[in-house]
Amino acid sequence: MDEILTKRQAQERANRISAFREELAQLEREGALALSEEQRQGVERRLAQTLAALAERFDVDTSESQKQISWGMRIASTLGGLALCAAVFLFFYRFWGALGTAAQGGILVAAPLGAVLLTDFAARRERTLYFASLAAMVAFSCFVLDLNVMGSIFNLTPSPHAFLAWGAFALILAYAYRLRLLLAAGLVCVGTWAAANLATLCGIYWAQFPTRAENVVAVGLILLALPALRPHRRIPEFPWVYRMIGLLVVFLAVLEVALWGGWSYLAIEPKNAERCYQLVGLAASAGAIWAGIRRRMPGIVNLGAAFFVVFLYIRLHVALWDVLPKYLFFLLIGLIALGLLAAFQRIRRRREA
Predict the structure, then answer these.
(1) Which end of the chain has fewer CB atoms within 10 angstroms, the N or the C?
(2) pLDDT tens-digit map of 102-115
(3) Residues 294, 175, 217, CA angle at the centre, nearest 5°?
(4) At what angle are helices 130-153 and 161-177 packed, to 10 degrees?
(5) pTM of the model
(6) How many whole angstroms separate alpha carbon 344 and alpha carbon 332?
């Protein structure tokens, strides 16, 4: 237990111990393995000590019932955080006009500060960080609302720099308390700010940055590269968030141009731009699947596979929808799906070998 582990790695080890116990019992029932009582007690004592240490340090789930409860807690904390954020917004818009100037200023200062203090209080008293994550979401919501309200009060011109402030606030909370959800929110905000500023440099109004998807692709690629440029030795679970957000941004931006070719910088016909980006999307998603399998990143594999299917369907729809009878089109889709399943099974067997 002296090695540096993340909670995910600790949970994987706990899962291996549970599987080892089951397999050991099965081998003994089949007569393939015979341990003396002393050996059996020694093994069980060592496994129990390891599980207890993992549970004490990382609060891992050591049984199926605990895993189910943990999933319920994750869902409840996420939904609860979103509900509290909605409650804050609705409270402001419902009662804001009836409050005096002093009360408004006090609320603007106290709301995010109080939520940050609550986040710190919860983080110091629970290892799972469910309540801390919920409180941090409320703090982030209050901060976003504060800047919006201040902009309305002082009649400020809308600016992309608000996204930078929101992103910085979310990233500070994320790194201070190891909160992946706040990290994702911060990366999205900072990425939006960067894409909006790239659009401004290209002579486009900043709010129209989604209409130039290449800018968004550049931001996604930067997010993908950041974990390699800045290793997270203290928080090793954060690079996964960078990769997933960066890859999702790239895929969504490419998908955007694959559907609306006029939103590209390419000086070609929109239909040709759509075809180019459909092929780029297929190649990029296939590359993500390959890289995820090679580096043992199931999240990257799943995301790449999902977008590969989307880009493949779009390409086939454009090329064959008006040519083939509808039943043949969907038959072709089904056959391709079977071929993909066979290919994934073959890859899986190779990896196992």
Answers:
(1) C
(2) 777 787 788 889 98
(3) 50
(4) 160
(5) 0.79
(6) 18
